[in-house]
Amino acid sequence: MAGRSNKGYLLVYSKGRKKSNYYLFYDKVRLWSQQSMLLLNYNFYKNKVLLGLVKYVNGSFSLIKLAHGLSLGSIFKTIIYSIKLYKNILLGCRVFLGLLKKNMIIFDINVGNNNFKKVASSNGTYCQIIDLNLDLNLILLKLPSLKKKYFFKDCLVTLGRNANIFYKFSVQGAAGWNLCKGSKPIVRGVAMNPVDHPHGGRTKTSKPEVSPWGWVTKHSH
Fold first, then answer.
1. How confident is the model at residue 219 (pLDDT cuts 50, 70, 90)?
2. Are 52 and 41 in contact (CB under 8 A)?
3. In sequence order, which ranges of 70-197 are alpha helices (DSSP H)?
4. Which of 20, 61, 107, 220 is surrounded by the most beta carbons within 10 Å?
């Protein structure tokens, strides 16, 4: 059983029965290669986001986020030059924000120097370009929350909308659905008995919150 030893002792809390492990490279930024990519498969998930298996021109494979509307055999690439961009504006291409035009739809925006901090990276989300102020190197975007915010024009974005747009309508019929994805429900300590957790069997007290092994989990500043 997941999370237990061969003798049945619970060793790891909140561990599910994850059945799939992906050892392919997940390209989050898509800036390291400007080669064309060919979509081969799209049945991979990471943090509930749909990923696609692509093959580069040099023969290497990678997992990337997909745009809504792509199909098997679609070709896209990372474009950093405006001359090449307007000759072939393809769905799913990775471009700089300053190269785009007004009212275009984009997603998966890299913010600041941290390339792993993203905006509009959830299923079905997107941003729309409202205004361009190239004198100040700022682009006004409408976020998925309908708020408007300025971004620098050198941010990397992906053309289109996030795939798996009907994810919010999906219904998980049983708890085993999440167990197979690696997550497991956590029971509150105050809902247990004293033999199961230090919080069990008590209501309000001045004692600090602790883990199941008695370690203090919250520290006062």
1. low
2. yes
3. 82-87, 175-179
4. 107
